[in-house]
Specification:
Blueprint (H helix, E strand, L loop, with lengths): L1 E6 L27 E6 L2 E6 L2 E7 L3 E8 L4 H16 L6 E6 L5
Antiparallel strand pairs: 1-5, 1-6, 2-3, 3-4, 4-5
Length: about 100
C-alpha cells in the first residue's frame, strides 16, 4: 500500500531531521514510537508497531509506503493524518492524501 501527501501549492516545509539513528523523526509523529531501519539522503524505513514503512519524496510531496505488515484503511488514515499534521502543522488545509498506484501501460 502506497500513499502520497501532496500540498496543492507544492509546498513541503523544511524538515528537521532527528539525531543520528533517528533522522526520520521528521516524518514520524511523536506519539508513534519507532525504530529506524535505514536512512539515506532524507529517505528510509522505520518500524512502527510491528509494521515497516518507507518514507520518501515524490515529485509532488511526501510518499509513504507500507513495506511489511497489514493495517486497515482506517488505521492507515489515522497515521497519515498524524503525519500530515506533524509535517505541515495543525492548520494547513492544502494537503491532500492519496492512495498511490502504478499507472498501467
Amino acid at each position: 500500500m502506497k500513499f502520497e501527501l501532496v500540498d496543492r501549492q507544492g509546498y513541503i516545509p523544511d524538515l528537521n531531521y532527528g539525531s543520528a539513528g533517528k533522522e526520520l523523526a521528521c516524518f514520524v509523529p511523536a506519539d508513534y514510537p519507532f525504530e529506524q531501519l535505514s536512512y539515506n539522503n532524507g529517505e528510509g524505513e522505520v518500524r512502527i508497531d510491528g509494521h515497516t514503512w518507507h518514507f520518501f519524496f515524490t515529485q509532488e510531496g511526501v510518499g509513504i509506503k507500507l513495506i511489511d505488515g497489514v493495517v486497515s484503511l482506517k488505521e492507515a488514515e489515522k497515521m497519515l493524518q498524524a503525519i500530515k499534521t506533524h509535517i505541515w502543522g495543525e492548520n494547513h488545509q492544502q494537503v491532500q492524501i492519496f492512495i498511490a498506484g502504478i499507472t498501467p501501460k
